[in-house]
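Much of what follows relies on a compact textual record of a protein's fold. Here is one such record, which you should read through line by line:
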Amino acid sequence: MKRLVALTLAATFTSLVHAAPETYNIEPSHTMPRFEYSHFGYSTQVSRFDKTSGTITIDRAAKTGSIDVVIDAKSVSTGSAVFNQHIQAADFFDTEMFPTITYKSSKLKFDGDKVVAVEGDLTIKGVTKPVKLTVNSFMCMPHPMVKKDACGANAVAVIKRSDFNMGKYAPYVGDEVTLTIPVESIKQ
């Protein structure tokens, strides 16, 4: 009996040590990055992007991973078709010239088996800057509806739009923009 328990424990620890990275596809209907900024100090305006794709790879045993996200800049949704066109113009996102926004991680920071921060490069309008995302929540578990493993998180960062050649009307329209990225992903 002791030998059986010892073999079982050895097999369990061996499988944990040799855990492989797992890759998850971003689930677009539950991943809609938002951005918010001050509008002349009157209010905080909130908009989102409706089309996001990419992959998340996590090796929780090794505490490593990578994130590769592509946002369709033309999918910006402000609540107004006229304003959507305005911020897709050359002074802001310039979606004709730069149809996508990307984020590529360089490092994931873990606390135990949970991702708590991501360092990487954000590219908007052809300008790439390092941006650290703070992960406020992170969870992986079997998805009750699709019957596959899934991971989800909420990440936040503050950037300056002028750093990405989108500073028109600053400081009246706030230069600081808060990015909030709710993401859900399904294991490949």
In short: The first strand starts at residue 22 and ends at 26.
